[in-house]
What we know:
- Helix content is about 15%, strand content about 40%.
- With about 150 residues, the chain is α+β, with helices and mostly antiparallel strands.
- Strands 1, 2, 3, 4, 5, 6, 7, 8 and 9 form a nine-stranded mixed β-sheet that branches. The chain has a two-stranded antiparallel ribbon with strand order 10-11.
- It is globular, with a radius of gyration of 15 Å.
Amino acid sequence: MRVRFHHLGVACRQIDAEQEAWVALGYRPERAEFTDPLQGVRGRFLVGPGPRLELLEAVEGSTVLEPWLVRGVKVYHHAYEVDALEAAIDDLRDRRGRLVSGPVPAVAFDRRPVAFLAMPNRYLVELISAQPVSVGTDAGVVIAGTGSAP
C-alpha cells in the first residue's frame, strides 16, 4: 500500500478562535472553508511552516468531535491519500485496523471518498481516495469529483 501524507485533523469548538493560534505560528488558510453535512463538520485547511492542518468543528446537532474534545484532544487523526481506497482499507484491516466510518464522499475533497480506521494503537487514520469520482449518485446527491481539492 502506497500512502502520501495529506494533513493532521484538529478538533476544535470554534474554527476562527483556533485559527488565531496557528496564524501566530505562520499558518494561513489554504482555501475557502467547507461544510460537510454527511460527516457533520465544518472545516478549514491551513498551511504554514509545518504539516497541512484541517481545523474541524461540529455543525449544529453533530457530536462527531465530542469524544476528542471532552478529553482535551486536539490533533486526533492523520490523513493519507491512497491510490486504491478499498485495497488500502483491506490492508489496514489485515493489520487489525477497524473501519469506523466510510467510505463516504467528502465535500473537502470534491466528493472523493474517505474512510476512517481506528488502528490498534488507538489512533485514527483517514484514508482519502486519490482517484476522482465518476459521475454517479450517492443518497440522491449527484457526485462528480474533479480531484482539484488539496
